[in-house]
Amino acid sequence: METVAVSELRSNLMKFLRAISLGKKISITSRGKVIAKLVPPDDTVGLVQKKLNEISKDAIINDVVSPIGSNWKLMGK
């Protein structure tokens, strides 16, 4: 994780936002102490696709988008 001072973040905000949009995580410091972290948003669709790919190694996946009459919980939530 890259560390950047508030003043540098202010001066190069768009550069850092582009990096974050590509998956980079940045710690923001003020007077040498970490005061915040900037991270990319959760990629929920990507996480679900990854889980389905993992499951498909051991199971047959057919129609997983049609309602079945019961609610599913997302693992880890």
The CATH fourth-level homologous superfamily: YefM-like domain
Instruction: Determine the oligomeric state from the structure.
Output: single chain
Could you give the order of strands across the largest sheet? 1-2-3
- Total strand count, please? 3
Query: How do the SSEs run, as a string of H and E?
Result: EHHEEH
CATH architecture, by name, is 3-Layer(aba) Sandwich
The level of helicity is: 25-40%
| Biggest β-sheet description | 3 strands, mixed
Number of domains: 1
Predict the CATH topology. YefM-like fold
User: How big is the Rg?
Assistant: 19 Å
Q: What's the level 1 CATH class? A: Alpha Beta
Average residue-wise pLDDT: 83
Distance between the termini: 25 Å
Q: Figure out the total of helices.
A: 3
Question: Structural class, from secondary structure content?
Answer: alpha+beta
Describe this structure in words.
By secondary structure, this protein is α+β, with helices and mostly antiparallel strands. The protein has a single domain (1-60), classed as YefM-like fold. The protein contains three helices and three strands. It has helices at residues 6-11, 13-21, 44-56, and strands spanning 2-5, 26-30, 33-38. A three-stranded mixed β-sheet has the order 1-2-3. It starts with a strand and ends in a 21-residue tail after the last helix. 0% of the residues are buried.
